[in-house]
């Protein structure tokens, strides 16, 4: 039986590669588009080792409309798209706002144009809890008002969501989209064959933690301890990357089976509770037996004090819940770091 083809932009990236595994294991045929500007080619070997097959790859920039047309034409029978391809570092976006707007908004516009030309109607969009800005109340629900974003990265996600709402509402356009607002993905595949592969100095907490434990970094600097939280450090909702990947399979199936309740649906994808940075450090030490050398530094521009998800909607409407604990997620991240060390 022929597998249903799903295009995965940014499919060699951290979340994308794990989604590719879950898609294939659920019976779909993922097709990757990636220019490796923020990922490494070794990921493809990891995918091949896990799945036992080579996943089709198109090495192109999603902003290149002619190259994207060529992919759609060559593949011929794409049924849907998961759009991961985006720059994603809050701090970097403050330094390079123009690049973030060009890449994140531009790639979505290009993708939507080509999808329309080739009659592909189903899209799962990689959004973010940054669209909520600094929320007035926690946990945030899908009805929590979006505020001015704290960073250009967050602003690009807000813009992309607005674009999808407007395009789907146009009478001559057939588009069904599910917006998945991620919280903080962590961890790695159980095989330790794929995981988070930051280029250069990590922008995210967990790879910095594991690299510090491995001796690659001298110490972990925690960005601020004077926030209005119980221990003064930022609180985030940390979701295992495989759990997050599985949410994409659920969303794809919902779109292809015509079960979406609206042209555009939005779901928070998290665990439903928050942990502070210091709690994560202690959980890592407990899960792995590794002591971390850490210090407190100044707050980082663009960071909100605390945010975590209300996941009631994802649970009731998608039937999706997470299954991996914080300590198990951190243990998998350490296992991945050890495999990289070898």
Automatic annotation (TrEMBL):
Residues of the NAD-dependent epimerase/dehydratase domain: 6-270
Pathway: Carbohydrate metabolism; galactose metabolism
Catalyses which reaction(s): UDP-alpha-D-glucose = UDP-alpha-D-galactose
GO biological process, any: galactose metabolic process
SUPFAM superfamilies to which the protein is assigned, alphabetical: NAD(P)-binding Rossmann-fold domains
Native organism taxonomy: Bacteria, Pseudomonadati, Bacteroidota, Cytophagia, Cytophagales
A single Gene Ontology CC term: cytosol
Protein name stated in the entry: UDP-glucose 4-epimerase
Organism: Hymenobacter daecheongensis DSM 21074
InterPro entries assigned to the protein according to its UniProt record, in alphabetical order: Epimerase_deHydtase, NAD(P)-bd_dom_sf, UDP_G4E
